[in-house]
Amino acid sequence: MQNSQTQDPLRAAVEQIRPWLRRAFLYGLVASLLVLAPTAYMFEVYERVVNSRSLTTLLMLTLFVLFALMVMEALEWARSETLRDAGDELDKHLMPEVYRAVFSMNLARPGSATTQPIQDLRTIRDFLPSPALAALPEIPAACVFLVLIFLLSPVLGVVAMMGAALQVGLAWSNERRTQTALAQANRLAIVGQQQADAMLRHAEVVRAMGMRPALHQRWSALQDQMLVQQAVASDRAGLFQSLTKVVQTTLSSALLGVAAWLVLGNALWGGPGMLIVGSVLGGRILAPLAQAISQWRNVVNVREAWKRLSHILQSLPPNVRHMPLPEPRGFLVVEPIVAGAPGSAGQILRGIQFALEPGMALAVVGPSASGKTTLARLLVGVWPALAGKVRLDGADVFAWNKQELGPHIGYLPQDIELLDGTIAENIARFGSVSRAAVEETAKLVGVHDWIMTLPHGYDTKLGLEGARLSGGQRQRVGLARALYGNPAFVVLDEPNSSLDDAGEAALLNAVTNLRAIGTTFVLITHRTSVLQVCSHMLVLRDGAQQAFGPRDEVLVALNKAANTGAGRGVKHG
């Protein structure tokens, strides 16, 4: 059975900041009660000072009210700072988990990458010191004010209760009338932001093929729908906000009029001096509801953010920590695996199985869409298998803690993904940069001399996705990153697709040198030049294993099959 933290990490994080919330609530409650200080001062001046004509009494009352107001402002400041600290604590507890969930979400559902959960956490954090939440501690104070009104006169209490009930009804109607429109506007805004981000990421393709007007039109249509929903919600919320102000103002006047009528009948406790007090107390009763309605858009936004964030955190729980495993030596065993893209029931690979010992190099060949890239993702534990296992030194690669396994794995995907940072940081995988190790790896893949020609050498900034490099340069830096630290197991997906002759020679030399120290390689390729450094060969076709074995034996079998017509159409290089 899962514990509560696993079931809802968001609620567990809120439990962590409960002491801050309690202090803030207490500060707000006392401050809301001190709001009556000016009213009490007015009443005492009218009753005591005017009748006694005592300057000493006036001075003492003035000092008292000034002290009360200073305490009230100090409490309001303390409440705001406490809630801000609570927001920082919430962020500290949850941001690592949210960051992990965003990363896991894109792995579990490729193409679903979005930073919206991070924005949702910020929305919740910023809501804590907001005016909407500040209305909560005023509700108990409003109940105290209602009791005081009943003490003045039950008739005044009934009038105040009627006003409060009307205000609650307006708040409920505001919720019903604006919730759907605001939620829809938020969803459209998120989709629009995702489309805009995607267009910026692919700006070169968009511009080269003249796609910008069509994409802008598509984005504008979403914006128009979002603005329509926002306008509907704003119009409705504005109407209820106006009605709320009318009720609040009317109640104060009504209480003043009823109190005057009670004074004429000698039925008001305290006499004429309580006329203004009753009116002021009535206004304070409705203040929390009026403030909540005026901030209703923020309330809806944080509620939607809470739902989205809670769902993501619960649907993508953290991996269970297992006992640390010893460093792998490179024994690879692929049990009969069936695999497809995460989140899809379709099968891309069926019945693939082979084994490699340390120092072996496997060339994986086959036509396009035969499942080669899917196999690469399975081998490094990025994608799970539907059936079967990929084992490195006997341990399931997918279940292996990636923080432990990662330094011993090298991976070069087909689409080179460099990150914003220096060349040295990218090669060192953004860990602790060992300049000697970085330079050694760069020399191994033949990029050291080129790097040294740059104005800042290894400290050259690459920009987002290595945008400042050519395709061949990105591929060679990515190759250096994959081979950094002499990993035990390396998977290279089309590692020479953008390389010139010198770059390809450096690649072959690097594979040969690392094989000599026991590194196991899997190289996915369409170019026959890579075959010379490979000991074994795997041929895939339509997601099935057509041949596996020592390189020369597989090549002989393929040539024989081609000559007899049985292997017609097989692409093996």
Share of residues in helices: 55-70%
Tally of individual domains: 3
Structural class: alpha/beta
- Determine the number of helices (DSSP H or I, runs of at least 4 residues): 21
**CATH top level assignment of the largest domain:** Alpha Beta
* The CATH architecture of the largest domain: 3-Layer(aba) Sandwich
Quick one: how many beta strands?
10
Apparent shape:
elongated
Can you describe this structure?
With 573 residues, the protein is of the alpha/beta class. It folds into 3 domains: 1-135, ABC transporter type 1, transmembrane domain (ABC transporter transmembrane region fold, Up-down Bundle), CATH 1.20.1560; 138-294, ABC transporter transmembrane region fold (Up-down Bundle); 332-564, P-loop containing nucleotide triphosphate hydrolases (Rossmann fold). Helices cover 61% and strands 9% of the residues. It contains 21 helices and 10 strands. The chain has helices spanning 4-7, 9-16, 18-33, 37-52, 55-108, 116-127, 131-134, 138-152, 154-201, 203-208, 212-264, 274-294, 296-315, 372-379, 402-405, 423-427, 435-444, 448-452, 471-483, 501-516, 551-564, and strands at residues 332-339, 349-356, 361-365, 390-392, 395-396, 409-412, 489-493, 520-524, 536-541, 544-550. A hairpin with a 2-residue loop joins strand 9 (536-541) and strand 10 (544-550). It is elongated, with a radius of gyration of 35 Å.
